[in-house]
Amino acid sequence: MKNTYSGIREQRRDTETYTDWGGDSFTAGENFPKRCLGRAERVFSQGLQCQQTNSVMALLSMEDAAFVLHSPVGCTGCCCMANDWFRVGQIHRGQYAMKNARVIVTNLDERDIILGGEEKLRKAIRLAHERYRPKVIFIFTSCSSGIIGDDVEAVVSEVSDEVSSVLVPIRCEGFKSKICASGYDAAFLAISKYILKDVEKGETEEDLLNLFAPPTVSYIDQVEIERILGDIGIRVNYIPFYSSLEKIRKIPNARASTAICKVFADEYMKELYEKYGIPYSHTIMPIGTRNTDKWLLGIAALFGKTAEAEQYIASEYQKVRHLVEDLRSKLQGKSVFITGGTGRSFAAAALIDDFGMKLVGIETPVYDNDTQGDIEYLNKLYGNFVVDIANMMPYEQVNLLNRLKPDVFIGVPVWAAKLGIPTTHVLDIKRPTMGYRNLAYLGSKILYQIENPGFNKNIAKHARLPYKKDWYEQDPFKYVKRS
Amino acid sequence: MAKKIKQIAIYGKGGIGKSTTTSNISAALSTLGYKVMQFGCDPKSDSTNTLRGGNYMPTVLDSMREKSVVNAGDVIFRGFNGIYCVEAGGPAPGVGCAGRGIISAVELFRQQRVFEDLDLDIVLYDVLGDVVCGGFAMPIREGIAEHVFTVSSADFMAIYAANNLFKGILKYSSSGGALLGGIIANSINKPYAKEIIDDFAGRTETKILDYVPRSVTVTQSELQGKTTIEAAPASEQAKVYIRLAEKIAAHEKSEVPKPLEVGDLRAWASGWADKLLALQSDE
What we know:
The complex is a heterodimer of chains A (483) and B (283). Chain A is of the alpha/beta class and 483 residues long. Chain A has 19 helices and 16 strands.
């Protein structure tokens, strides 16, 4: 990563990356390896996600940090969601004296855009240091400071002599990539360059695992994951969510690395392998029994604990078996459409097999080598299903849902609910989703929605989606044009 | 009914004589009795120098740097024959965004209705001509200048810049932007220079407003910090500028230019290169 990866996901060299495509899973699975999936672009697009949001989200819960956004004030809007998670997460962790993340914005205005905003950045960093005395200050660039070319690195190197905090500038201009996970990569590139640059690998702690967790993992999921790993004798360095500078600095001492989400720190773990020789496991998100098994076995192999893990999995499965079987008896054969981030949507797609449900369509923001593996696996489980490579294109989604008429929709429910379809999601940041014990909660949630569809049906009666009737008869991928 | 203020943008590649020509047109227009403002849209902020005895003056952006609210009146200065001079200015080299500076400065004047209050007849925008970004296209967007003239020599790089400008005009032409008044052919002394620029005008379906010869009088005047109109009003060169000013004052109808595609422009230029080589070997 250090010399080869730019932090822009579309530019990764070891995989083709598609962000705009629509078709079926057999065609995708067959054509992608031959490099003939077909480059295309949406000529009509309803929304994308900003990378600054993801960079901020990845780090905002670090307890000994302060944050400077070098941007107009509006960009701080991207901190609201992450700050909310941070606050709730504190309560869940028993930190009742709840606090907000410490954010300062340079508030770039018309004048700064014309004359340059470096002076304001200098002031903001000094202020963050003076006010909070944090161990580390993360500095996020923005579209506007990126366009005018403010030399953030130069300001950082100049101010770093005056302050005791470690200064970490993150290049996360929102326009750089269509793939929001590039924002996560930008954060890790910066951690590597500014926090770990002079950290030598200490003595390896043989039972320690770097567990890269995105901020979307609930505390109860963290506890479950740590329990599972603890049960087979693996200690966790949980980073960067709710972590600290000290925990980040410990990264090089771990025996192995893994991530909870497939698109989180995946590139960074490669660098850790190249730089420190730390092996990593990159499998799937631990949602559902099969996925959790796979995820755990991937890690166990790196610690020489495969046999132990297999035994453990069998015993854990015995504990939840009656729950899974009960759910399966009620959910068997129900059809599902799934949308979400790349990690969660494919994890959910494999999860529903636990309950005997059938996948009819999936929306994923990205298709790359990783996705290919998932698609091949799902093709075997479900046969042919619809694949929409899109980041929340509601117009395509409602068209597809209207055609496929799934029994349940898993994902952001806003539009599907208005079609009267039972909805739930797997990106439930404050609730249980992962591992063995939390599986039942997720299954019950799906079942509850199917058994109680009244709310969405009523919404559908009274709410109207903004599309004309004839749109539902047109090709859902009409606006995906081959380039 | 309020009179219509004639707003004209003059573009040209840097160093081609655009500010010299604009300042002389301003000076000539004012001697013809018009109330004129020259608005320099170049971060170097030297457009109106020769109207003001070679002196620099505070720019709109200098003022913006110092205070949060800028009063347009504070950045208008009087030059030769009462001409109103404004320089948009720009950030220090290498920082910020000069293009956004032009947008801000022009917007400021529009919002404060300065041109109406001063009862101007003509406003001339003198703009850095490569139209490198949206900011430098500001004066040709809807509701600012109505006519654009480009100063170009027969030098190919200047013609490339003119062709780029035509692309900019074409882009905004359908949304009420400025149209092209014509080309002011500058430093045209040799016959082949005239042929080249005429040929380019023909191919892009544009007009040559006038030919301005290269003249030592211009240099002498500039060294005194003056326009030719001020320093040598009786000279031949001054007459050329007066004639040009009269044409601009009388100009009513501008048109959409037809810029050449990059490939066509290159082919056209290499065709001329061959002809010029042949000419040289004849000499």
